[in-house]
Amino acid sequence: MSTKYKIRDQEQLYFVSFAVVYWLDVFVRNEYKDVVLESLCFCQKNKGLEVYAWCIMTSHVHLIIGTNDKKMEDILRDFKSHTSTQLRKMIKDNQQESRREWLLWMMERAGNKNSNNNGFQFWQQDNHPIELWDNYMKEQKLDYLHDNPVVSGFVSKAEDYLYSSARDYCGEKGLLDIILIE
């Protein structure tokens, strides 16, 4: 019996979280967060991804997503594969990255421990999708996602965190086009 979380209904919204292996704080640099944003934007335009909310923390990403025509697990697989490759290259080539050797070593270590990989792993294996089947769950996950930077002490108000959709929900334009949850 599989213990993995599954996306069962492609027409529902899902709260999805995924983290860097060993919860490494990779997203302390904006250029790394921008790779995630660019990939989400690409998936919106080319793969049918619908983004309702998002937040990039230092070691993980939270999304509320849906899809209009493709399987969500396929979109997430492609997204994680692309960002993994791009971020590995960026870290490797970034002469300003003081933790470069250590980060690459940790990701190689994770990849060597996982038979699904070829000696390198950026993201943890699972996505933890949670189906948002009612308004209470949608509001709860939306609040959790947007409050994450506040709870972590990065900002005092959720809408002040640049790498989140919280500002979209306060009437300002954020970094990524989203569909507001009503």
UniProtKB/TrEMBL annotation:
SUPFAM superfamilies for the chain = Transposase IS200-like
Instruction: Provide the Transposase IS200-like domain boundaries.
Output: 9-140
Species per Swiss-Prot/TrEMBL record: Pedobacter fastidiosus
Quote the protein name from its UniProt record.
Transposase
Q: Which SMART domains match?
A: Y1_Tnp
Pfam families, A to Z: Y1_Tnp
Q: What Gene3D superfamilies does the entry give?
A: Transposase IS200-like
Its domain of life? Bacteria
